[in-house]
Amino acid sequence: MAEEALVRQARIDLAAVYRLLDRMGLNEGICNHLTALVPGTRDRFLCIRYGLLWSEVTASNLVLLDSAGRILEGEGPIETTAFEIHRAIHQADPVRYACVLHTHMPRASALCCLEPMALRMVHQNSCRFFRDVAYDAEFRGLVLDAAEGARIASALGGKSVLFHRAHGVIVCGPTIAAAFDALYYLERAAEVQLLAMGALGAGTALALISDETAAVVKAQMDAGKAEWAAQHLDAQKRGLARADPSFCE
């Protein structure tokens, strides 16, 4: 696929993810942010213009900016927290972190408000993230400078998911489809865990999956998840296109 077509596809896919997460109720007002590196680059990424509803995002109104914060295509402004968080994470590993999704999605964010702050291995969906979740217990307020962005990127420690105390989650992937698929299943895993915790009564406890079994299940999922993720996003885009194809504009 020619470079121009790859960039166009990245724009469509990222716009679709904004729309899908809006329909799923996993965003928050005009806040939170999703970015993707432009294919073939390591320092240019696509992001929402601050002030847009996620239901208003289209392939063409995504903003293209570089790691210095210069807007190369589209109209700003870009939210400062979006720029500082995403620039730092993309730069930390442009291959593994080609797509970075930051949300305050309710169930996973609820786990960020617990002590201990932990995704427990209680369900098949949980095992997908076995030993691939980092925890940042330092909440320092809004991310408004490069130093805090770099600290958060460092807190990821090479993992794909970060739980940030009193804040929300960051989910990363080598493709837009991979990051979307992971974020979707992370929220479902958090939902099951919270439901199970809420059902606990006297003399009961969470039934934890052993580390050995969790590792086996993760390996099984890792073997196929790139293909599954692509199929999942394609299916979601088909449904979205039937309801409102304007995300492709």
Element-level helix/strand string: HEEEEHEHHEHEEHH
Strand order of the largest sheet: 4-3-2-1-5-8-7-6
- What would you call the structural class? alpha+beta
Q: Uncertain spans, ≥5 residues at pLDDT below 50?
A: none
Distance between the termini: 20 Å
Mean pLDDT over the residues: 95
Number of strands: 8
Main sheet properties:
8 strands, mixed
Number of helices: 7
Strand content: 5-15%
Radius of gyration: 18 Å
| Share in helix | 40-55%
Give a written overview of the molecule.
One of its GO terms (molecular function) is actin filament binding. This is Class II aldolase/adducin N-terminal domain-containing protein. Residues 12-194 form the Class II aldolase/adducin N-terminal domain. InterPro entries: Aldolase-II_Adducin_sf, Aldolase_II/adducin_N, Aldolase_II/adducin_N_sf. This protein has 249 residues and is of the alpha+beta class. It contains seven helices and eight strands. It has helices at 3-23, 80-92, 106-111, 124-127, 146-156, 176-198, 211-243; strands at 33-37, 44-47, 63-66, 71-73, 99-103, 133-136, 161-164, 168-173. An eight-stranded mixed beta sheet has the order 4-3-2-1-5-8-7-6, with helices on both faces.
Task: Give a quick rundown of the structure.
By secondary structure, the chain is α+β, with helices and mostly antiparallel strands. It is built from 7 helices and 8 strands; from the N terminus they run αββββαβααβαββαα. Strands 4-3-2-1-5-8-7-6 form an 8-stranded mixed β-sheet, with helices on both faces.
Task: Give me some keywords for this one.
Aldolase-II_Adducin_sf; Class II aldolase/adducin N-terminal domain-containing protein; 45% helix; Aldolase_II/adducin_N; actin filament binding; 7 helices; 249 residues
